Amino acid sequence: MRPSQVAVTSQAAELLRQLGGEHGPLMFHQSGGCCDGSAPMCYPAGELHVSQETDRLLGELVVEGMDPIPVWMAKDQYAYWSHTHLTIDVVPGRGSGFSLESPTGLRFLTRSRLLTDEEAEALTP
Asked: How far apart are CA 61 and CA 53, in angstroms?
C-alpha cells in the first residue's frame, strides 16, 4: 500500500463515528472550491462517483470501529496540493449543504502542511 497523505484528528474521528452510525461507510472528496469553497466533503461511501481517471486517492482515514474512509481529490487539483499532507479536522460552524456533517453544528476542514523530504520521496512512483 502506498503511503497516505491524509490523517484525522480525534475530534473529527468522533464525528465520523457518529455519522458512520447514521449513514454507514463513509468517504471524503476534497472540494476544489467551486460552490462550497475548499472543504473536505463527507458522503456515504459510493454516493459521489470517483474514478482513477479523474481523481486521486490520497489515502484512507483510520478511525477505530469503522471501515477505512477513503479521501479523494480531483487530479487537476492534486497538481497544486501534491506537496502537502492533509489532516481532516472539525470546528464549530455550518458545514456545506452537500456534506453529511452540515446539520450537526460542526464542519470539517482541512489543515495542511508541507510533506517532509522523506514523505515526498515515499510518494514518488
From this structure: 22
